[in-house]
Structure prediction request, 415 residues.
Amino acid sequence: MRTTQSGVYLLAAMALVCILQSADRNLFAVAIQGIKAEFRVTDTQLGAISGPAYAIILSLAGIPLARLAERVGRCRLIAGSVAAWSICTSATAGASGIFSLAASRITVGIGEAGAGPAVQSLLAARFSSRGRSGAMAVMYAGSYLGIFVGLALGGFLVEHVGWRRAFLCMGIPGLVLAPLVLLTVEEPPKAANLLGNTTIGDVVTILRTPGVLHFLAMFCLMGFATFGTTAWAPTFYSRQYGMDVERAGTVVGIVIGGGAVVGSLVGGLLTKCFRESDRDAEATFILWTLGVAIPAALGVFVVVDRALSVILLLFSTVVSCFPAGPIYALLHGLVEVRHRATAAAVTALAANLIGGLGPVFIGVLSDQIGGDRPKALRIALLAANSFYLWAFWHTYRVLATYRGRCGQLPASAST
Prediction:
């Protein structure tokens, strides 16, 4: 039986959900070399599996599952999603070839599709606009910590027990967390008329909201570079510097996962402080952090010294993750309360359809330039990270729209 709980418990539970979701997703990055050797496949095929095969189905399933969350309850859907993707992750261990491997990633995507929008809607309902950026930052800190778990722990497992047993092991914790969420996390009261009209009608309304299209473009382009870098960075350091799978996974996991956790938490605190005197702090914060992070992100794949490359990767990760919480707080500030879960699903749809192409873009370009040659992957990663420059322009446009919206809102607005 549920009792009244603090926001701290809710944040902790949702952070655990995000940790496992991200860990299961990023395990594939450190398994690439072993899978390639066993199945004799190309970088393009592996990029397609780690990107579109997973992302497209996650995207398409996101909106109907978000609508389902608004009907059956967000906590129930989150618990069911955790159980589903955990079972499918363990089932990846039984893949017999490239097609069964792709099928397993598709089913993992279906399972994960229901969690993200429901978690965001749950936190947005529990926290006011003043505390929402911080709550979203904690959620994203969980996702980023999951990158560390997936890469570092995953790399250890792949190196010592093989990639099949690694997938088997990584699916087990979710089967424990799913019933815990179902039995102990409270469902906040729903807003009036939460369901709105039809799914298509709500999606059209969301897309017509001023600033949303620029927000989606910004988010997708950032995701294109981020997903691609995370998926291929362990392989890059392995090919470029001769690091073994375990070490490459550990280094990248600590740098990207740990740096992202620090960046998201610090960014959430900074935004909360700035918002005391500036109601458009979210968009402003995203703009300047992106401007600082872009040169470092490009520098990771320009410098030839390994230590300097790792330092730049850490710096760019920390700074680029400062606005992790404010990004979704910004979205929830743009749309109506009853559209929040669906808006989050629309964002996930766009981000995964476009951002999910990042890994396959890198794989295709790497194959075209020279396959396993270290220089080929270096150039492909540099090209993918150049998309941050395009994202910067859309961020500026969102800022202009959001400033206008904030100027029309009463100072006491909190939803």
